[in-house]
Structures are given as C-alpha cells and as structure tokens.
Fold this protein.
Amino acid sequence: MKLTMMTLILTIANLAFAVEKNITVSVKGMVCAFCAQGITKKFNSEPAVSKVDVSLEKKIVKLSLKEGQDIPDTKIEGVLKDSGFNVEKISRDEK
Amino acid sequence: MKYIIYLIVILNASVAFAHPVSFKDATAVMTWNQSFMTDNWITYSFHPKMAVAARTMRLEMPEGRMDYYAPQFDFLVKRWNETNSQANIYIYGSYGVAHFLNQTDRASQVGVEVDAESRKYYISVQYDKMWTPIGPDMDILKARLGIAPYEAEFNEVASWFMIQYQRHPTLVKQHVVTPLVRIFYKSFLFEGGVSTDGDWMTNFMFHF
C-alpha cells in the first residue's frame, strides 16, 4: 500500500512538471505547397515531434512536441535547410 | 533578383514544370507528354543541392523519331529564399545513348533552368542542348508564365493558369504555344493543356 501510494505521488508529480512545447518557425522561401511537402515528411520522422502544421499564408511551420521532449534549434534549421528553405526566426512557447 | 529576370529574358529553354532538385532524400517522378515529345525523369535528391536522375526522351523530327536514354546529374546553383518568393538556378547534364534512323550511338545533353515564383506568380525558362553523332544538334527552349487564381494553403488543392512557349527548331513542331492548367495537391501534380494548333499536353509529377 505504501509503495502504491509512493508510486502514485511520484506519477502525479511527474505529470505536474511535464510540459508540452510548441515551436513556431518563420520560414523564408516557403511559397509552394508542392515543394514544401518535404518539411512535414522530415519533421514527422523526428522522434520528439508529435505534430507539424504548415501555413503558407503566415509563412510558419508549427511543431508540437511530445511531452518532456525537445528539439534543438540547430536541428530545426538543418531540417529546413535539407528541405530547401531558410529559417528566419524560431520561437518557443510552453503550456 | 533583377539579374534573374535578365537571365530569363536573355535565355532562349524540357521538364520545365518541376525543380530538378527536390528536398533531401526525395524521389521524384516526372513525365512530360506531347505528340512530338516525351520527357521522363526519375530523380533522387541525395543532397539539398544535388540529385541524380534517369532520363528518357522521345523527340519527333521530320526525318524520324529519336529516343534518348541517359543517367543525369542535377545541381542547384543558387536559390534565393525571400519572405514572399523563391528563385532558383539549376544546371544539369547527362551522357547516354541515342537511337535514330536505325542507328544507335552516344549522346550528351546539358541544360539550365531558371525559375522565380511567389504564391501568386510563376515564371520559368529552361534550355536544353543535345548532341549526338547520328543526328542534328538540338535546342529545346521552354518558357512559362503563370498566375494562381487564389493563394492555396498548404493542405489545399492549388491551381495555376499558365502560358507556355516552346522552341525546338529540329523537331516537327518548331514553335508551340500552350495555355495550360496546373493542379497539385500534396505530393501529386498534374498539368494539362492544348496548344494553339491543337496539340495536347499532359504532364504528371509526384515525389515521395
């Protein structure tokens, strides 16, 4: 019983500190959806990324990360470079 | 940027509807189909600026049909990524085999493609030069102007209206003007048009 309580407390504590991150990347040159398909393909293969949203109108790529995971700016820049684009700005928000 | 426009104007240009180099690790299949010409590419982009391709062409000349088969190397010379636009210069070259008038011999080809696009406007010029001992030297120029009736979002069907001019003095049709429609959704692209003298054109492309 004591062990179960301890496990429960630790689990709740862990959940309380776990944060979901969203990363918004402003991208230059992203004008064609056909050419930008590589972006979703590349980011979806990243283990930390749970969702990728691309907006040509806003010229952004929005990455939702899995709980407790992160992806460095250098990696983001690398993926976009491999996809043929340039990063203008990377901003992170946590919820 | 103005130098690109100069280049487009100065250059007198085969698959001018897609980039010869795609995103890294992408494989692209492109087919170009007209009564006097087919041009098929399978490319693998092993680097953001470089791709290898297998290319086949069918060219209808007054003397007969020429077929060309070759491995090709594509290189992105320069890309301008701007906030609302992108422009590119590509070069490519291949060395393979041509078959013409019951003869088969070596053949080579070089090409350049220049394009600039926004979500609303598109312009491209592509020029290919081809040599083979068993036939005439060939020039193939393709130039395009396009406008999108609406600015499609990433997951929407995109459509474009384009006008295309082709000049190839050694083929049965030397000058061809084709109004066409381009439609793409995700990784699939289709183009269809009818030239001013009634020739159909259907092009397909997909990448994965």
In short: The mean pLDDT of chain A is 83. Chain A touches chain B through 26 residues (CB under 8 Å).
